[in-house]
């Protein structure tokens, strides 16, 4: 996978969402503790693990599976190291109160696959609601009008095409000279095209208005988690802009 060319993906996302909330009161967001690092973070920045009826540990990216859960906020290399040294097994045993557990050998890959699927699902929902804008010309037009909240590029997008849309986006955001860039996804055009049912999806713009005004926040949240997990960048989501909240190991 190619390293995203924009170096401040998480801060870009945070700046976008924080800017939309400066006029309102700070929002409290529940925090969770990573069972491996011991650090706390908003639950939207972590990945929840749950156990199936037969005791298999599985990723629960939507955090909706019943029963107790365990939360991880480390990048994939750290998780794989913890699995190899047996640290994950011990941490899960404590989190699940000694329940019989089965940790699949490919858990690290399952987590990445689950986050990728969740990202693609949210992009698909945004497209169906009319919030996702495709086509370079249309994106550029809407970006210059300040109607694009989140600008996304496929991993194999051409640099010149990205630069043109980045510039249009900065104009619409009144951020010329800032160097702000759209987010380069850890997904190529083939994966995006298949997931969205369209040909040659290279660039995408997520609008901040209309029937699904919160789409940009939801996409940015899971994208930050995926990029942190795969690339080691610190997660930063919409929820992190809110006030601190009590820390719980699980709900």
Automatic annotation (TrEMBL):
This is DUF448 domain-containing protein. It comes from Parerythrobacter lacustris. It holds the Pfam family YlxR. InterPro entries: Ribosomal_eL30-like_sf, YlxR, YlxR-like_sf, YlxR_dom. The lineage of its organism: Bacteria, Pseudomonadati, Pseudomonadota, Alphaproteobacteria, Sphingomonadales. Residues 1-29 are annotated as: Disordered. Residues 32-112 form the YlxR domain.
């Amino acid at each position: 996978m190619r390293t995203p060319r924009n170096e401040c993906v998480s801060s870009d996302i945070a700046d976008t969402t924080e800017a939309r909330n400066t006029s309102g009161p700070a929002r409290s967001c529940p925090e969770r503790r990573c069972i491996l690092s011991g650090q706390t973070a908003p639950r939207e920045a972590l990945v929840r693990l749950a156990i199936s009826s037969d005791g298999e540990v599985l990723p629960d990216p939507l955090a909706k599976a019943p029963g107790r859960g365990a939360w991880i906020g480390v990048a994939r290399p750290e998780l794989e190291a913890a699995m190899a040294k047996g640290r994950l097994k011990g941490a899960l045993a404590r989190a699940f109160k000694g329940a019989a557990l089965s940790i699949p050998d490919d858990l690290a890959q399952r987590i990445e696959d689950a986050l990728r699927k969740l990202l693609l699902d949210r992009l698909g929902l945004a497209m169906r609601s009319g919030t996702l804008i495709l086509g370079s010309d249309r994106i550029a037009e809407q970006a210059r009008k300040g109607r694009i909240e989140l600008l996304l590029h496929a991993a194999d997008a051409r640099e010149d095409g990205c630069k043109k849309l980045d510039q249009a986006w900065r104009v619409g955001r009144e951020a010329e000279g800032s160097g702000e860039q759209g987010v380069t996804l850890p997904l190529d055009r083939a994966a995006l095209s298949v997931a969205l049912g369209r040909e040659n999806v290279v660039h995408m713009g997520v609008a901040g208005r209309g029937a699904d005004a919160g789409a940009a926040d939801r996409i940015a949240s899971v994208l930050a988690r995926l990029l942190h997990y795969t690339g080691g960048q610190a997660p930063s989501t919409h929820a992190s802009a809110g006030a601190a909240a009590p820390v719980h190991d699980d709900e």
